[in-house]
Design a protein that fits this description.
Blueprint (H helix, E strand, L loop, with lengths): L2 H19 L10 E6 L6 E6 L1 H10 L6 H10 L6 H6 L16
Antiparallel strand pairs: 1-2
Length: about 100
């Protein structure tokens, strides 16, 4: 499995968790179950993903993330008004935490 495929799976898990919980403040040990179509027969296959560790890692590795990946993460929490300025100032995703919550 490529790194891009792993990224896409975890991003889908983050979106699923956000839609259900309204935030991505998950404990590091949180595991998210997602369903993916199995190649060939198209039936769904359940995957257990260590979402809490992945979210924590993305926040701590925000500097080396591409702008496209930062945009994808921020999009999970819908609109982020502070994203362009925060990125220009070199903030990490930890500093973008308000962007990862649903605006009310």
């Amino acid at each position: 499995m490529s790194q891009a495929e792993k990224w896409a799976m975890h991003l889908a898990a983050a979106q699923q968790c956000f839609e259900r919980e309204g935030h991505l403040k998950v404990p590091r040990k949180h595991v998210e179950t997602i369903s993916l179509p199995r190649p060939g027969d198209g039936r769904d296959e359940e995957r257990l993903l260590k979402l809490g560790a992945w979210v924590a890692n993305q926040r701590s590795r925000a500097a080396p993330l591409t702008a496209d990946r930062v945009d994808q993460l921020s999009a999970v929490g819908e609109r982020c008004r502070h994203r362009p300025r925060a990125l220009a100032l070199g903030y990490t995703l930890g500093g973008l935490r308000p962007c990862l919550r649903r605006d009310t």
